[in-house]
Amino acid sequence: MKNGSYFIPREQIYSFMNPGAMNNEEGLYITWETDPAAARRVLPPPLELVDPAHPIAMVYVVNIREPTFAPWYMEGGLSLLCRYGETIGVYFLNLQLSGPGAHMGLCSGREAAGLPKKMCERIVVERNGDWASAIIERKGRRIFSVEVEMGGYNDPLMEAQRKDYGPGYRERGACLLFRFNYGQAPEGHVTFPNMTLVNYDSVTDYQTWEPAYVKSLDMEPSLDDPWAELAVVKLLGAGYSVNSNWVAGVFPLAQFEDKEADNIFPYLFSGRWDRSTLVTGRYQRYGQF
């Protein structure tokens, strides 16, 4: 087998993330109204809920079959509908990945865009006729589980909001994310002196979209992956889709410095790291060998 090199000529890297595309991904997209207090608690202060009294949570769970930067992998993401000034988009609390391309998907998304990604043990999306289901499992917890039936939404308002979805429809939307630099306080703890709010400009080209009625949705409590914090108040509906998603660009929206930046980080930690990184004085164990 040919050996590589840690030096690659610059012109050979022009194709890196050019484009960064998730082609022919297939799976479920679920929407519900969540608890206002919980939504406000986990949303970083520079961002605002679009409808504070009726905040919208969304999850997608898909098989990304043809990414341009990795072998295929599975991915699921939890987000809130929000805004920064006039820019309306989604804020991702966490994304989970599994499968052969998951490591490259995680590194590309975290390093290039600031997406809060983690690796998990298992993601499954299954379709049988008019029924579909999805699960996400990490560290022994089933942090997300859903079952849907094709044919219509839970709430009639979804019909109007998704009326254009289908073959040939292109959707362009903003993902509001934070990128940051590390520092160190005189006392030794890590600080975050610079924080940039960015618009991860996302384009989705739909090949299919089938309305679906959510029959069940469960989230098991987890110390490291608390998806269950955004509890279901009212199910709105779901869709089963085949589509291609690509990144039009990552654009800065605002810059935060010093204490203002450091105060944002408590909202970002759990989406990126486990609490094992906070253990002091005792070892964390996963069993005896």
How are the SSEs placed, and which strands pair?
Blueprint: E1 21-34, H1 36-42, E2 48-49, E3 56-67, E4 73-84, E5 87-98, H2 102-113, E6 117-119, E7 122-128, E8 131-138, E9 141-150, H3 157-161, E10 170-184, E11 190-218, E12 232-257, H4 258-262
Q: How many DSSP helices? A: 4
Mean pLDDT, as a whole number? 94
Spatial strand sequence of the major β-sheet: 1-3-4-5-10-11-12
Number of DSSP E strands = 12
Largest sheet: 7 strands, mixed, barrel
Uncertain spans: none
**CATH architecture grouping of the domain at 20-166 and 205-245:** Beta Barrel
Helix percentage range: 10-25%
How would you classify the helix and strand content by structural class? mainly beta
Query: What is the CATH homologous superfamily assignment of the domain at 20-166 and 205-245?
Result: Acetoacetate decarboxylase-like
Q: Write the H/E string, N to C.
A: EHEEEEHEEEEHEEEH
Give the CATH topology of the domain at 20-166 and 205-245.
Acetoacetate decarboxylase-like
